[in-house]
Amino acid sequence: MQGAPIRLEDIRHPVPHRRPQQPSAKSHYRDVWETHPLQSGYDHFWGIRSGGVDYYTHKGTDGQLDLWDGPTPVEETGYLTDMIAERAIAGISAAAKSPKPWFMSLHFTAPHWPWEALGDEAEARRLEAAGPGDALMHYDGGSLATYAAMVTRLDYQVGRVLDALAASGQAKNTIVVFTSDNGGERFSGTWPFSGRKTELLEGGLRIPAIVCWPGVTKAGSTSDAHVISMDWLPTFLAAAGTAPDRARASDGIDIRPVLLGGALPERMLFWRYKNHGQQAARRGKWKYLKIKDQSYLFDLDADPMERANLKAREPEVFKALVAAWAEWDAGMLPLDAKTFTHGITGKNLADHFGLD
User: Fold this and answer.
1) How many whole angstroms separate alpha carbon 90 and alpha carbon 70?
2) What is the reported pTM?
3) What's the rounded Cα separation, in Å, for the pair 252 and 41?
4) Total structural domains in the chain?
5) Do residues 156 and 242 both lie within one domain?
6) How many angstroms separate the Cα of 268 from the Cα of each of 56, 158, 168, 250, 325?
7) Tens digit of pLDDT for each residue in 157-182?
8) Which pairing describes strands 21-25 and 103-107: parallel, antiparallel, or unpaired?
């Protein structure tokens, strides 16, 4: 989960130069050891620097402990989902004692692999004994029951965080966003979509986007608008009466009209993923997709499973989307052939037979 509590009085005025900021848990800083969240504008950090660790040993794929309090490595015991929640709750309680507005970026790792629910210490010891490397990715473990237990525990701890926010008297003055950084993986239920994490099929792209913004969002309302994670930055900046630096313009847009129950103008969305040279573009109901040497055109309104390839029936639509993707890609940094890219193969999952 990536949570963004922001006090409402702050969005009525220009953004202050300095405010307490607290990232908790997953940060993906471990790939660059010289840096950490405190060097990126945060005041506090507690959590892991890599993309995933064991829930009990807190070790990454390299077998090294990956748990930090600021820039300092720490050793603590416990189930990581619970530990992250406790830190977040403590941070909320501390913030309530100050009149300053605050921001918390809360990243639970659950339900990321390894597949360990509360009480699965024995499985953690087995994976640790297997040594560093792919063992932590847990291709020889997990089940629907374990995955459900992990999500249930996550849900419980999210509830505790929201209860703490309410108990502190800040709930009516705080924006909360619940979302994710990728589509489902292995045991996820992504119906009616196909595909999963590391794939630009809809099952790998679609993520939850749940917003509680007192005075803006209506409880229980839903929207079919096309929004993307990069929209949150310009949305919050616009609410605060400012905008992104023009020299570093965001690809996102202010989506407050949707949050207020309205609509957004039609726009293009683009993706690329190094594994298998994947490309995707979306405009309205139409989606262009390329995986390796195969390209597709889908009508997602009629065909969310992406089964009927319409590129021969709608050649002009297909050509326009391909051209738009190429123009967008030309403005991006080139992909580095030396960098790592993750993907699922037939070695890992049977439904990916034939993929290397």
Assistant:
1) 15
2) 0.89
3) 21
4) 2
5) yes
6) 42, 33, 41, 14, 9
7) 999 999 999 999 999 999 999 999 99
8) parallel
